[in-house]
Specification:
Elements: H1 2-12, H2 16-28, H3 34-46, H4 50-63, H5 68-85, H6 91-103, H7 108-119, H8 129-141, H9 146-152, H10 154-157, H11 160-167
Helix pairs in contact: 1-2, 1-3, 2-3, 3-4, 3-5, 4-5, 5-6, 5-7, 6-7, 7-8
Amino acid sequence: EISACQAYCWALHGTYQGTIMCSNRAIDGGFGTAEVYNNLAIAYLRDAKLESALVALNEAIGQDEAFQEALHNRACLEFRRAKQKGRPVDNRARLDIEAAIKIGPPTATLYLDAARIYSLLGQEPREYRERVVEYLCEALRLGLSSDRVRKEFEPLLDDPDVAASLANCVPGEAEQPRVRLVDPLSDDFFHLP
């Protein structure tokens, strides 16, 4: 348990090598919880070890199929891999992000990532446009900056119908950035500011 807590603290401070070392020590010591594997995956992602991150996320989800953070992280990992390789996102990312949304709670970041995933999901750019717009609207409602939407989805906004749909979204209060780490000893998952 101490190694899991140390790994969590290293992750909070952005020291991912320490996170990896302590997480693996916790796992080797018999404290390989879904939370520990999720946090290990975050460290691997930050260290650009994508295959190791995927293995850790698969283990986290294997232990807890309703672990929203791990599902969200695995979907984002697939998005990152697809974007790097210039290919559509695998359908598994869609299933993971939809499961994370269903589990809740909803966040602007979760909906933004869902929009990103759907924007790379199909072969045709317009194939999932309605879903992208729906998720961007939800992200705006939950406090995502409209400037961020304009910057990241600029080509989509060239379509007057899309721009009109997003203009009708009622923006909410700004959401604080979140780190999708979880306290390995907490029964109650929480996000850090």
